[in-house]
Write a structure and sequence with these properties.
Blueprint: H1 11-14, H2 19-34, H3 38-51, H4 56-68, H5 72-85, H6 91-102, H7 106-121, H8 124-132
Helix pairs in contact: 2-3, 2-4, 3-4, 4-5, 5-6, 6-7, 6-8
Length: 138
């Protein structure tokens, strides 16, 4: 625990990597993913997760990359990692449900939907994702 601001220490803190550099890493990985440079996006997102493991969007980015690679069960589990870090946000659950469904893993998808269905139902963007079983823009 960081005694100054009560945040857990991150690798980025130990390496003295500034928040602006982390922001740039996220933006770079997202751009690489959207541009279809999947191999590079995977490397960038993996580095971002290592440097800032407590950032839900780091795991969301890596999950989106793995999802685009067709590694659906792995992507779903990475979305669940983001959900564990930020349990109030239903978006990671919705993306995980969509991945599990697309992978033919209805058991985990049904379990998540049972827990998160009401929260997802309140957001039309997430509702469409879960009902459609596909991807939405990131």
């Amino acid at each position: 625990m960081n005694t100054i601001d009560k945040r857990p220490l991150r690798a980025a803190d130990l390496l003295k990597i500034t928040p602006s550099i982390l922001e740039g890493l996220y933006a770079t990985g997202r751009t690489q993913l959207l541009d279809g440079d999947i191999a590079q996006a995977d490397q960038t997102a993996s580095k971002y997760c290592m440097l800032d493991a407590n950032a839900p969007r780091a795991w969301m980015l890596l999950a989106a990359v793995r999802q685009s690679m067709g590694r659906l069960a792995e992507a779903a589990n990475l979305y669940l990692t983001a959900l564990m870090i930020e349990p109030g946000d239903p978006a990671p659950a919705a993306f995980a449900i969509a991945c599990f469904r697309e992978a033919g893993l209805d058991g985990p998808a049904d379990a998540l939907q049972g827990c998160w269905g009401d929260s997802i139902e309140q957001r039309s963007d997430l509702r469409a994702l879960v009902l459609g079983g596909g991807q939405r823009s990131r």
